Amino acid sequence: MNEPKNPFTTLLVMLAGILAVAALALWAESSNKSAHLQGLDNGLRHAALSIGNDVVDSIEMADIVLLGLTGEIKAYGGVDQVGTRLDHIIAELSKHAPDLRNIHVIGKDGHLIATTVTNADMHRTFADRAYFQYHATTASDEPLLGSPIVSRLSGEHIVTITKRLNDPSGAFAGVVVAHLAIDRFNTLLERYMSAFGSASAVVVHTDGTLLAATSEFANRIGEKVSLPPVQADLQDQLSTPVTTRAWSLDDRSRRTASFASSHPPVSITLGILQDSIAQEWAYDSRDRWFIGIALMVAAVAPSLRWYRQAKLHHASMTTLRQREQELQLLADASGDLIERLSVDGVREYVSAAAVDVLGCRPVDLVGTRVFDHLAREDRLTTTEKFVDFKRDGSEINRVVSRYLRPDGSEAWLETTLTRLEAHGILRGFVAITRDVTRRKLRHDELDALANTDTLTGLANRRAFDTALTTRLQAARDNATPLSLLIIDVDRFKLYNDTYGHASGDDCLKAVATATRSAVRRDDFVARYGGEEFAVLLERADADAARATAEKIRRTIASLRYPHERNLPWGYATISIGTATTGTDEITPDTAHMLFNAADAALYRAKGSGRNRVQSDDGTNDDTDAGKVVNV
């Protein structure tokens, strides 16, 4: 290396190099912080989704119990006709909702008729309760989610879910009431928030009433609170933004995630104190900052010494070699893989972390393209993103892709690309890569748990709703028909009453397994709720739907699963309703209409004798699945 004519110019060049390294270190630290916040945000989103699903499921289960109770009362001809059976009906229904504290039936005069509370004062009146006055004056069959109150019978702090009773003429006949304990929701919030440190959570009615909260806000339950509005019926709760905002409850800034539902009308808001996040990050990064500052001092000091001895060629060369070695140590000491890429994505430099991240030695990677060894299904997409990044001129781009290591294992890698330019001309890129396999697998695991029915292993109702929307869109784009089957196990309540709920669960699992085996591999099968299942058949017209439904019906019947009260067969059978949409009929309301059509066909099948298939166009299959057997 020739001695520079002006030592000061050489010093400026060296200091510029130090600043570049410092900028790269700061950028890497900023990337680390962004990744930390992203992981924190994902954790908040998943927690909000899990809490929201739990709260909504508890309220919806209470809705279902009240619906069953009103149905039983209606079936007997009204409250006055049920008689002594009412207490038994309430007791049986309450077994299906473990989160319920108590269930009451209140007459039209406001007095208690029946309750699950032991030794309750049956002379108490509830005519002054807000929910009673609402149902007495509003002829709506929709359930009402009330505000927090103290139960007059048990003394617990509760939230009520109520439903109006009508007499045969449609006039007001009373109210059925279900209690959910506020302490249960508070405990749920505390359990989830304990994983985040200084975190808070609240459950708020859409009218602004605080329904449940973690300990710091528990004394304000029942008050009207002012929190930023949360959009209801979000299509993808896991993609909702996590924001930083001040909570009006204590005017402290928090990193906030939300979950919202219009039915039931509640929202869940989670937050971690911004001060706590900053303190945690400062604590975690202090060692890196200390090392970085120490390296900067170690870099500047030799430069200053070199400047004082600039006329000594040997001293200047020694200092430059020392600087080069320090930069190499900085890159090799990093746990993240640092690479310099050419404009075409060819590796020009690879740090020592390549052994841990990619399973290859750095010397074996220099000269190879960064897209080599990516999974085949990711390679084209990643290449297109790289080309777009070069063209659009953005400074930073982050890509997550799958990588196939030489030993055959698969890893998920997150690579952050930064442009290297000189005088406005692109010279290459710096790529910082880290292994995010554990985080990606955990994300996929949580996503699967949120969309799987735990009893049968099939998709759950939420996954079905998403699949129905997606497959209707595909049917419209591809101009192909889509069919829906709604399946119901015949007289399943009698099965549970006869054999017990454990046997009932075994029966449902057997039905689920048989249904899955009777359809195509790419057909979508879900447990819609209780003993109901739903099947989506792509590229299947009405005839194909009926044929598939009949195959499923025969498969279930061939199991000869004993059900002595399912006469005349004596074994478990199913009824199926089918509906098909044409290629030119898909509108925003198609999903709702298709489900209603299949559901109506199911009810016609059950009304026609059960153990049969009924289509929405009136076509049915009356073929018996087998001879009557004695059990």
Task: Give a written overview of the molecule.
This protein is an alpha+beta fold. The protein has 3 domains: 45-285, 2-Layer Sandwich (Beta-Lactamase), CATH 3.30.450.20; 334-436, PAS domain (Beta-Lactamase, 2-Layer Sandwich), CATH 3.30.450; 451-621, Alpha-Beta Plaits (2-Layer Sandwich). Helix content is 44%, strand content 23%. It contains 16 helices and 22 strands. The protein has helices at 7-75, 79-82, 85-94, 130-137, 182-193, 274-308, 313-333, 354-357, 362-365, 376-392, 437-450, 461-478, 492-499, 501-518, 542-558, 590-607; strands at 100-107, 112-115, 144-145, 149-150, 157-166, 172-181, 199-205, 210-213, 243-247, 252-261, 266-273, 337-341, 347-350, 396-404, 410-422, 425-435, 482-489, 524-529, 532-538, 574-581, 613-615, 620-621. The strands form 4 sheets. Strands 1, 2, 3, 4, 5 and 6 form a 6-stranded antiparallel β-sheet that branches. Helix 1 runs antiparallel to helix 3 (85-94) and helix 14 crosses helix 15 (542-558). The termini are far apart. 33% of the residues are buried.
Q: In summary, what is this structure?
A:
This protein is of the alpha+beta class and 631 residues long. It has helices at 7-75, 79-82, 85-94, 130-137, 182-193, 274-308, 313-333, 354-357, 362-365, 376-392, 437-450, 461-478, 492-499, 501-518, 542-558, 590-607, and strands at 100-107, 112-115, 144-145, 149-150, 157-166, 172-181, 199-205, 210-213, 243-247, 252-261, 266-273, 337-341, 347-350, 396-404, 410-422, 425-435, 482-489, 524-529, 532-538, 574-581, 613-615, 620-621.
